[in-house]
Specification:
two-stranded antiparallel sheet, mainly alpha, about 70% helix, 2 strands, homodimer, about 325 residues
Chain lengths: ~325, ~325
């Protein structure tokens, strides 16, 4: 079942848009990841990244990039900027993929199944998994700073800045540390929100902002996209908590019910299922409102991605 | 005992220079690392970075920066460029520190002693150690891309590019992967050299190049500094292999003899002690020659650091 009941029909057909953009992301990832790495390491890196995942973060980068380009004060889409956006899309996915590799390791969640496949440490061993994750993080920043491109240095530097902050101790890694320290601990709603803002929200919001930078979004639009990213990012986690309860492992492609089993605080344990669903819906409304307030003429893909985040069933 | 016998008296007194520059690096690291991170994570990050280490990589950044600034075609030292150099110095140390944290973990070298202290996973647990390493890598790129500074975007982007390449699959992480796959394997001297070029050489050379970029080195000087970095970086590893055999654990501050115990190929196992010492000396001569060829008026700190690398006893 989907996390939150459908209440309106989509105004934009996301499927062909996603298919088209995913194809470009998959091609770029396949072309770039693991090449030039020693064989064993490159294999583990490619295994961790290719053939799997919803690619939500790359799609957010590309949707935000196109939305920004649609604005009169933003840049027109050009091959150079499109290259920047594809690189940013791949970079956020590399950070996401590395975090999953490390998160699945025995000393963390000790998970053996991811996207329906054995996790990287099960397939390659723990030490190669650790190194592959480390190398994927470095490669994300390498992708953002090509030396043979016309991407302006200011764009390259800003993308690195946004990605580093989203991935680091005041972002994803920081959220994971709070998560780790929260097992069996009673969190308030504020504390839970703060944990998720960092753990998953920072990189989702960062994806939107990196797309906005590639499309040279003006200040007002940038702030609105930032608000969109914050609401959508939090909604993603609320829905994740809901799905951990209502979906089964086969649908999720990972172990269901593991948060409850691990005695981790979730939105469902804190608010109950119905209020958690209502909260996800409210965040979706907030995300849509931010897009309307952005002044950008075409934010349909971003709107549809937020819908998908809240209404997904896995 | 030192790795290679002294053959000439130093032409530059490194001690006061190092003391002065180390103080700036320590102050900057202490000011920056771990702040804004959740408490547990920040503590582990600071533990991994502060109060220890020779800080060779930061000193190489600062020495290369000053050498580049001394060139007529390079930049004059300014507060902005000095800030860039200090940030680069800290960033390379963060990458080095994170690699040690992960390298010491049970699934890698399983080492309990580092710089005379319990390793991070012994002190904080494996999962926090994993996350602290991950967060330190991200923070390195964050330090290079401040949004409230006058450091030119082109310098920021170039520093990120150099650091990502030095740290990633075609650099440090790649070398570690080869190392991991080489236990009990008979390597040729070429293969051993390639492993070390990546594993330790890439970040040492990267440190020199990052300093050169901060000082706006001209092309000829940049290439010469690159050659210096390659020779010095390889010498570092040859000497490491020598010290693993001739020094004791107390002097090293880490477990001695562990390469031989782990049946890892080393320069000593491949060449024998005397030829390994002669090779280190030849690389030192090569490093000095590169500095002479750089055309830079003042490369004394770099020369003295190369001397130190080869003549150190721990």
């Amino acid at each position: 079942m989907s996390a939150v009941p459908m209440s309106q029909s989509p105004v934009f057909d996301l499927a062909p848009w996603s298919q088209n953009h995913l194809a470009r992301v998959e091609q770029a990832l396949s072309q770039w990841v693991g090449h030039g790495a020693p064989a064993g390491l490159g294999d583990a890196m490619r295994y961790a990244v290719l053939d799997g995942g919803k690619r939500l973060r790359p799609l957010l980068v590309l949707a935000a990039y196109e939305a920004a380009c649609s604005g009169g004060t933003g840049a027109q889409a050009t091959p150079v900027l499109a290259d920047a956006a594809i690189r940013a899309a791949c970079a956020v996915e590399l950070i996401h993929a590395y975090s999953l590799v490390h998160d699945d390791m025995p000393c963390m969640d000790n998970d053996v199944l991811r996207r329906g496949k054995p996790t990287v440490h099960v397939q390659f061993g723990e030490a190669p998994a650790l190194l592959a994750g480390d190398a994927l993080q470095a490669f994300a920043f390498e992708l953002l700073t090509p030396d043979d491109s016309l991407i302006p240095a200011s764009v390259q530097a800003t993308l690195c800045r946004l990605l580093a902050r989203a991935a680091g101790s005041a972002g994803m890694a920081g959220g994971q540390a709070i998560d780790l320290a929260s097992v069996g601990v009673a969190l308030t709603e504020d504390q839970l929100r703060q944990m998720h803002r960092l753990k998953t929200g920072a990189l989702l919001q960062g994806s939107v902002l990196m797309g906005a930078v590639c499309g040279h979004a003006a200040a007002t639009a940038y702030q609105a996209l930032s608000d969109y990213g914050a609401a959508m990012g939090l909604a993603f986690q609320v829905v994740d908590d809901i799905l951990d309860v209502v979906a089964d492992s086969a649908t999720l492609g990972k172990t269901a019910g593991k948060d409850a089993a691990a005695d981790k605080p979730t939105y469902v344990s804190l608010l109950g299922l119905e209020r958690a669903q209502a909260y996800a819906q409210a965040l979706l409304t907030e995300a849509h409102a931010a897009l309307v307030g952005s002044g950008l003429p075409d934010t349909r893909a971003l709107a549809a991605l937020a819908d998908m985040v809240v209404r997904r069933s896995y």
